[in-house]
Structures are given as structure tokens and as C-alpha cells.
């Protein structure tokens, strides 16, 4: 009985999400004379917030945020845990600055959704181009940062099931070092409610934890990437200790990062 109820709620949400996507995707073409930032404010933000509101009302999924005080009102590179489709919606709808996602160009071909994001001046890459693709990310990313936007990347590259850890790629860390921008690490457990490749949405509360800014200065990509991974994965073990095997090394490294950030802020 419960499964049938969850299935029906998820189906209703899917229909509402599809209707909202068609509506706002169609309206996006009316904004093409406007700058990309205004397209985001007028189309992308209302669309994502409407979808998330429907998710809360229909599927019973709530959100709590830890570490709001760490959000900078300045350009930054966000490196986030990737478990679900939820975080892409949330970051688009609630980032303090207009976000810019780095994504594979194939998403542009999705009707309405792809057409809409194509008008938002994101960074669509061809993964088959290898190093040339990364140079495009650096070139376009620097422009977006100069516009005051946030660059949002998922270092694991793909959605990782709850309780697992993917391989952290250095692309985001390399971009931060090349542009001399700080990194904002974010952990969350959205996969508990909106699991990867699962149609049924589970009611509950998603917890988002926003970490301290990590400086990219005087670091190698490997060093910065290790800091990001240590903080995010240690935080995942704090959020859901029952899902992840304990790793005292990660916890110690994350504590060291946090204490170093506090000390640096105090001295400043």
C-alpha cells in the first residue's frame, strides 16, 4: 500500500515537473534579447523553485541547510557531492549569484530543458575533446567569473549512490588554480530522498552542508582536490554515519581544514 502511494505521488510530481519544464522552456525563447543573467532570473530561477516547491508539496521532501554563513556574495567555484537530480535544481534556484554549470553538450539536445539551458550561457563541453575541452572550461569559466557568477562542478563526474564514493577528478581544482578563485565545498544527502535512477521519491529531509572556503593559492591541483574530497566525504559520514564506513583519516583532515580556515579568518 505504501509503495503504491509513493508511486502515485512520484507520478504526479513527474507530470507537474514536465508541465513546468515545457512552460518555462517555451517562455525562455521570449527572453533571448536579454542578457543571460536576466534569463536566469526570469526563467531558470522561477522554474527550479516551482519544481522544488512541487517536490515538497507532492512528495513530502523538505530541506535543511547547515553553514549558510559560509556562502560568499562573490564569484566562487562550487565543488559539490553529486547523488541526485535534486542538487542541480537547488543550486540553480537558490545560489546567491547566477550559477553556471559545466555539463556535457548532449544535454542541450533535450527538448525544452536543453533549449532553455542553452540560453543561459552555461559551459557545455565535448568530453571527446580531452585537453581542449578543459581549456574551453578555463576560457569560458574565467569569463563567467568576471561576470560575477558561480561556477558549479561535480568532481565525481556522475551521480554516486548513497553510501559510495566516486573518484574525484581534478578538473574543478585545476580550474580554481588557473583562475585563482577559492573553492566552496558542499556535501548533501539528496540521494536519500531522490535516489539515482529511481522513479519513486522518498519523503524526508535533505540536509545540505556548506563548507568553509578553500584557498587555491600556492597549491597543486592534487592538493586542493584532496582537501575538497576530505571535507566532503568526512561530512557525508557526519550526515549519514549509518550509510558510510568510518574513516578517521578523513575526519581528521576535514577538522584540520576547518580549524585552519577559522585561524586564518581570526588572524585576518
From TrEMBL:
Molecular function via GO: 1-acylglycerol-3-phosphate O-acyltransferase activity
Transmembrane regions: 12-32
InterPro entries with a match to the protein in the record: Plipid/glycerol_acylTrfase (IPR002123)
GO terms for biological process, alphabetical: phosphatidic acid biosynthetic process
SMART domains (alphabetical): PlsC (SM00563)
Keyword Lipid biosynthesis in record: no
Keyword entries, A-Z: Acyltransferase, Membrane, Transferase, Transmembrane, Transmembrane helix
Biochemical pathway: Lipid metabolism
Domain Phospholipid/glycerol acyltransferase intervals: 76-191
Pfam family, one: Acyltransferase
PANTHER family: 1-ACYL-SN-GLYCEROL-3-PHOSPHATE ACYLTRANSFERASE
Protein name as catalogued: 1-acyl-sn-glycerol-3-phosphate acyltransferase
Organism the protein comes from: Parvibium lacunae
Amino acid at each position: 500500500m505504501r509503495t503504491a502511494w509513493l508511486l502515485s505521488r512520484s507520478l504526479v510530481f513527474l507530470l507537474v515537473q514536465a508541465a513546468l519544464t515545457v512552460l518555462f522552456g517555451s517562455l525562455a525563447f521570449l527572453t533571448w534579447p536579454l542578457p543571460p543573467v536576466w534569463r536566469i532570473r526570469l526563467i531558470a530561477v522561477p522554474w527550479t523553485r516551482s519544481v522544488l516547491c512541487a517536490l515538497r508539496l507532492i512528495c513530502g521532501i523538505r530541506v535543511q541547510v547547515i553553514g549558510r554563513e559560509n556562502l560568499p556574495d562573490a564569484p566562487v567555484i562550487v565543488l559539490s557531492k553529486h547523488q541526485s537530480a535534486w542538487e542541480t535544481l537547488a543550486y540553480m534556484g537558490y545560489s546567491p549569484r547566477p550559477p553556471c554549470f559545466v555539463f556535457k553538450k548532449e544535454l542541450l539536445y533535450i527538448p525544452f530543458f536543453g533549449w532553455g539551458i542553452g540560453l543561459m550561457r552555461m559551459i557545455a563541453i565535448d568530453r571527446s575533446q580531452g585537453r581542449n575541452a578543459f581549456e574551453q572550461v578555463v576560457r569560458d569559466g574565467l569569463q563567467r567569473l568576471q561576470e560575477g557568477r558561480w561556477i558549479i562542478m561535480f568532481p565525481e563526474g556522475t551521480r554516486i549512490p548513497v553510501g559510495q564514493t566516486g573518484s574525484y577528478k581534478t578538473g574543478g581544482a585545476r580550474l580554481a588554480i588557473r583562475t585563482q578563485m577559492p573553492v566552496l565545498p558542499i556535501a548533501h544527502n539528496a540521494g536519500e530522498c531522490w535516489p539515482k535512477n529511481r522513479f519513486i521519491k522518498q519523503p524526508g529531509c535533505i540536509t545540505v552542508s556548506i563548507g568553509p572556503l578553500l584557498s587555491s593559492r600556492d597549491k597543486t591541483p592534487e592538493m586542493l582536490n584532496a582537501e575538497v574530497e576530505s571535507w566532503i566525504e568526512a561530512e557525508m559520514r557526519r550526515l549519514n554515519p549509518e550509510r558510510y564506513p568510518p574513516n578517521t583519516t578523513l575526519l581528521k583532515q576535514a577538522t584540520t581544514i576547518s580549524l585552519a580556515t577559522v585561524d586564518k579568518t581570526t588572524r585576518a
